[in-house]
């Protein structure tokens, strides 16, 4: 395998793994903020305990996401120095804003929220979680602005072998905003399915916290249907902004592929400008099919939820929601693969080929880097799964958040 293919595989593994953490973080942050709003307005003890239980799961996932995000960003210098040299002055601006938001503002307010239980006014404490949630959105926003530039470069002028930013506002275009909306709604889908599935597990086991998990299941399942609808809607609109080569690959039509190739060749000169059509079409089909499955699961769940006592006693509902937990994660990965594979063979579409974006390193060095990064991310994902599963299985009264018990989360993450 060539150096460029090893570099692409490494970034696919690390970025894909990190994206799973991000999706759950976005969804859980929103759900925790909504729940705390209800708890603050109503002084409901059960909703307060819901905030603590789901908030601790959110903190664990957030901490691991920070670690994977830091490790992943090393790759821009290690593996993709050609990209940062050529276009870093343009998309680096939005990446810098994302770093400021995620690693300073969001983490600072999250720390205040974690340690502010019982110390801050309840309205101030509520404001903190909404600041955390909104800054999580802002972080995702700037990431999508950077990614959308790579998909559709605008707002620049080329000076020698580098791009210079000339119009920052042009980066915030309709295509980027649509992609942001798609990611945000997809994150909410992940969070709602997770909340509903974990709640169904507790209800199936007959936990004594029936009211707690009944309300949690109703919240997660009730929001899942509009979230899936929004994700599908934004995804459909996003097709209006796809590159012609990606559209042709998605269609799988040889004639359209030939036309797209000819169009690109006429514009850029001789070369192969087609993405891997089979992989793009496969990822796209998986994304669409899984989205339909999620919509059906949500719709059936909402219908069953309307029957009296079904939330507590329906084994069909419980098993369906438990088995559905992985589906949104698989869908987000399929969608991410469709978006990124369809951009090939470009790192910056139409301007910088992927093979020219890779750092000048040997094949052996890149292989070593791939093994190290993949092993590290694999371990982080296993630790995150273990911590989430262990915490999710616990009785809500055993949750450490908001009490004097230490919160079980990886030590390195507490420094951010």
Automatic annotation (TrEMBL):
It holds the Pfam family Cyt_bd_oxida_I. It is a multi-pass membrane protein. Coiled coil: none annotated. PANTHER family: CYTOCHROME BD UBIQUINOL OXIDASE SUBUNIT 1 (PTHR30365:SF15), CYTOCHROME D UBIQUINOL OXIDASE (PTHR30365). Belongs to the cytochrome ubiquinol oxidase subunit 1 family. The chain crosses the membrane at residues 12-34, 55-78, 90-115, 127-145, 179-198, 219-239, 283-304, 316-338, 366-387. The lineage of its organism: Bacteria, Bacillati, Actinomycetota, Actinomycetes, Streptosporangiales. It is found in: Cell membrane. GO terms for biological process: aerobic electron transport chain. Its main location: membrane. This is Cytochrome d ubiquinol oxidase subunit I. Its EC number is 1.10.3.-. InterPro entries: Cyt-d_ubiquinol_oxidase_su_1. GO terms for cellular component: cytochrome complex; plasma membrane. GO terms for molecular function: electron transfer activity; heme binding; metal ion binding; oxidoreductase activity, acting on diphenols and related substances as donors, oxygen as acceptor. Keywords: Cell membrane, Electron transport, Heme, Iron, Membrane, Metal-binding, Oxidoreductase, Transmembrane, Transmembrane helix, Transport. It comes from the Bacteria.
